[in-house]
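Researcher: I'm preparing a figure for a lab meeting and need a structural model of a single chain. I don't have an experimental structure, so a prediction will have to do for now. The sequence is pasted below. Please return the structure as tokens so I can convert it later.
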Amino acid sequence: MTPEIDACFAAIRAEHGADSLDRVEEMLRPRRRSEHRHPLQAAAKWVLPGIPQLPWHDPYGHPEILPLVKALEAAHPRIKADQERAWASSRERFSDYEHYLVRQRDWQALYLYRDGRLAEDAAPLAPTAYAVLEEHAVATGLICPLLESHFSTLLPGAAIAPHCDLWNFSINLHLAIDIPDGAGIRVAGETRAWEEGKCLLFDYSFEHEAWNDGDRTRTCLLADLWHPDTTPPERAALTVLMTEIQRMMA
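Model: Understood. Here is the structure written out token by token.
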């Protein structure tokens, strides 16, 4: 590890206790890369031990996440109207989604949160979703600053190939905005359908894929949140750790 990471970990332990980062330290041991993983997590790079190996989660089952879920679902009609207006009038503001594995032209994104902060230039285009995220995800520290929130639009015929994301210490929330027949998502071999106006919640360190075989775009609002089984000191340490690793890799 670097001096910056060492100093951060030492400060966190001094404040929260000598054992507060035991799981993070265990994750960094080389043997952890392959041990104690679900087979469908095999391609994830970082697996924090002690996180339940549960691909699908009840979006109403985590008290920390529930206020965000309720706020998003209650605001769905206004969020959908904002998104449709933005897609019709400001199509150039949507970009090809650049997943860490691939860039897809048939997967379009309008970012509301990225690089550790709200995307202020998106507020006029998506004021309702922006306000909900600001109040219930950003101000509360629920959103993972390493990742993002965006409108995710799959064009007709688009497919996202099966893959695992990088780690298991964040979790992916989907609010279904506009869902045509023929759109679906599969996580760890289990296929589910989005229900417009409702949320899905899953651990994307498990292999997952999505597709749109419908005749119009499929749009969800995605938010990358801290996994509810992580602790505040772990979140602080993981933010510094992964930021430094990404800096070194760049």
